[in-house]
């Protein structure tokens, strides 16, 4: 049985996983720290300060806490500059159809994004009012893979985690969904996301009839 869908945002509903990558890449280049796509894979779904910790693992010197905060703020400036200009055409194909199908089936819908910029991004994508609840990452204390964010979404929707399906593009997110006692659909590379209960290559390939009894 499934009563609710809980969506990750970056990398699931739009291609901002790439936007995050470019912002980190720019920062890494500026401070002379090596940074490759493989490093970025580990940062997906991971919150801002923990992402910076991953980036600085390859730094040749220590960065004290105040400097870390300044670097994270700089990356966020680059990211916000980029998403400030995002318009609804940046929504992945199939999102509107999927949300409409979910509504027809009576499912509740939430967004569980680790991003503190999620509200701005959802507004710019024109889908802010499509969800019953958007978890505010600023009110959380534990990042994915901790289940807190998915449990908060289920709680706000008034449903048991057991009847929720979480939809994620990151390994940290899939681990968080499972730790919350939910089923996980991965969006992306089936080899990378093998812990998920099912994997689709992109959101346009997600057919609710495969997962939800009509
Ligand atoms: P911000 P998601 C996550 O969003 C991103 O995957 C991750 O790369 C990013 O570091 C994190 O949000 C925090 O974002 O710096 O904007 O607060 O995938 O959980 O929607
Ligand atoms: Mg994501």
UniProtKB/TrEMBL annotation:
Transmembrane segments: none annotated. It comes from the Bacteria. Belongs to the HAD-like hydrolase superfamily. CbbY/CbbZ/Gph/YieH family. This is Beta-phosphoglucomutase. The chain holds residues 785 to 998 of 998 of the full protein.
């Amino acid at each position: 049985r499934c009563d609710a869908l809980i969506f990750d945002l970056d990398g699931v509903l739009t291609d901002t996983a790439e936007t995050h990558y470019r912002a980190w890449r720019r920062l890494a280049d500026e401070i002379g720290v090596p940074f490759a796509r493989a490093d970025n894979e580990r940062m997906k779904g991971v919150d801002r300060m923990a992402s910076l910790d991953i980036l600085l693992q390859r730094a040749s010197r220590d960065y004290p806490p105040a400097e870390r905060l300044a670097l994270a703020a700089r990356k966020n400036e680059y990211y916000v500059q980029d998403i400030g200009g995002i318009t609804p055409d940046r929504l992945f194909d199939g999102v509107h159809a999927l949300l409409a199908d979910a509504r027809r089936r009576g499912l509740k819908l939430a967004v569980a994004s680790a991003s503190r910029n999620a509200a701005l991004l959802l507004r710019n994508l024109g889908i802010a009012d499509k969800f019953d609840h958007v978890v505010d990452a600023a009110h959380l204390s534990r990042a994915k893979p901790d289940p807190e964010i998915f449990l908060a979404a289920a709680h706000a929707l008034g449903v048991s985690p057991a009847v929720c399906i979480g939809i994620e593009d990151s390994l940290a997110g899939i681990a968080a969904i499972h730790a919350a006692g939910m089923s996980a659909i991965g969006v992306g590379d089936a080899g990378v996301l093998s812990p998920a209960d099912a994997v689709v290559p992109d959101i346009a390939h997600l057919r609710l009839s495969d997962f939800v009894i009509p």
